[in-house]
Amino acid sequence: MHFEIGQLVIGKVKSVKPYALFLEFENKTNGLLHISEISDSFIRDIEKYGSVGDEMKVKVIDIDKSNGFLRLSLKQVPPEEAYSTHQDGKIVPVATEEEFAALKEKMPTWIEETLKKIGDDYD
Question: pTM (2 decimals)?
């Protein structure tokens, strides 16, 4: 199989490290899915996104010309094309503006309270 940058491919997780998932493809080509390319959100436990043996669709974002090693991205796979056999079925979370509405509404009050407290501390 020939790989190209931008291509969506399905690979199998062969190894899990705290910083990355290592995937293997049908022609024994290997790739690295770095934790920063899994989600824009903080990831405390990478195994919530993939474990050894799982298959997932990823995007090829770079290819090492000397050895063919692939750099991969999960977060760049369009949501409608996402695929994973992970037991939790966890797909990269997508935060909507509605989910931040409460924070948006409370922030002015928190700022006001904090400024008042800071002012009280210096009086």
Answer: 0.68
